[in-house]
Amino acid sequence: MTVKLFAPVLLCTLMFLLPTSPATLPLVINTWPFINASAVAWQVLQSGGSVLDAVEQGCTRCEAEQCDGSVGYGGSPDEKGETTLDAMIMNGDTLEVGAVADLRRIKNAIGVARAVMERTDHTLLVGESASLFAENMGFTAEDLTTNKSMNIFSQWLSNNCQPNYRKNVFPDPSKFCGPYKPTAVVNEKRRAQSTDILSHDTIGMIAIDQHGHVAAGTSTNGMTHKVPGRVGDSPIPGSGAYADSTVGAAAATGDGDIMMRFLPSYLAVELMRNGADPSSACKTAISRIKKHHKEFFGAIICANTTGHYGAACNKFSKISKFHFMVSNSESNTPLMKSVDCI
Question: Which residues does this entry assign to the site Cleavage (predicted)?
Answer without folding.
Answer: 201-202
